[in-house]
Amino acid sequence: MLAIALCSVIFSQYGHLAWSDEFNGTSLDSTKWTPQYGDGSQYGIPGWGNNELQSYTGNPSNLFVQDGRLHIVAQKQGNQYTSARIRTLGKGEFTYGRMEASIKVPAPGAGLWPAFWMLPSGGSWPCDGEIDIMEQWANDWPTNVTTGAAHIGTCPFSQATHHYKSFQHQSQTGNYASDFHLYGVEWDEDYIAWYVDGVKVYQISPTSYPTIPAQHSWPFNSNEWYLILNLAITQSGPNSLTVFPSQIEVDYIKVYENNGVLGCKDPQALNYNSLATIANGSCEYQVTFRVDMNNVSSTFSVPEVNGTFNNWCGNCWPMQDPDGDGVWEKQVTMLEGNYELKFSADNWSISESLDPAWACTNGNAQYTNRTLVVDENRVICPQWGACTPTCNSIIISDVSEHQQKTNALYPNPSFGIFKLNNSNFSSLSVIDVIGKTVYNNPKIKNLNSINLKHLPAGFYQCVLSSEKEQHFQKIQILK
Fold it and tell me: What is the rounded distance in angstroms from the CA atom of residue 144 to the CA atom of residue 475?
């Protein structure tokens, strides 16, 4: 059932470089970084709170700058492990922005744990939050998975009240240790998105935490936050194949601030911001899931919606059928983006069987999931195990209102002719209501219009792209 949905959106527009370190000197810049030492005992968290095995030092064998790169090196000395951890506390603290680092992680080696992350200055963990921009756990084989997370919880720490959202992203080009890769977040009010090599791979908002009790709050709008880089040794430790010394190399770290008002610019969204000048991917929409269970012969009690939006936790989103007609429903608020999902029942005691050749799926033979593009308020309403909607599967709220005022259908690309009014864009993709790309043209630079008459009648999302930006436009094709 598990798969990771990708959303290919380039970094938003941040115009001001607020802080950076390109490691061009011969030593760590003490005006920007402070090393931390020991095993965490001085903070009351021996093993740095995770039963880690290393002790941090500032020794040149563990921490040095050379040839324009920062090196953090894990060493083994007898049965002891040493490494380095540095932070910008008191020297570089931020509220919102784009934080990114070009990092080459260690070669394969069990027990190695590189991380690039953030904590709030003056805060407590986890009630004031934690943002993990990049974490990787090395193994005996090349590391091709990177992760990130956002932590929320109560203080003092209790596992029962510690909630976090995390993702795993798999490299499409080999392993992360073979070269430098760019890891970053875009962080704004009520919104965090993670990027790997410039591509958005995950995003969250307060609505991503529907199970947090009322006494908790979204902590990421408060405090100033500082950066941390470290290479740890996990509790399970290295094995006989782990090679020492092992290191992470950092080419640069940059922090950008935006030069406008970021927010949701779609008037249909629940959190539309009329003052926003830059769309930052933070729009939230009302999504209604309906599944017709009348064709299911297996015995079940409660169907559930599960997917990349709730960590595939089947019993987290139970559905209801108050009128007893066999059509079960769950209404939620979701952040815009691309997702995958399935319907199951009784916490995965039964689940849908889908064909990867169907248009509503991801095409993955191993984990065949439904796809979902959240870019407006909509209803998802298939039969169990089928693609065909049993209702209007898309809602464009301003169509009927515009019809009443102008006696015309909107938005409508002249019965299939999509006019290009902006020569800045170089490519066009058209996505249907179930998230499938039905048209793609990478060379539209010198065109005045695109003929889409071959597409079936219905609503579509057009994605216009250039090297610097993307523009989304909803259209309706008539026949």
Answer: 38
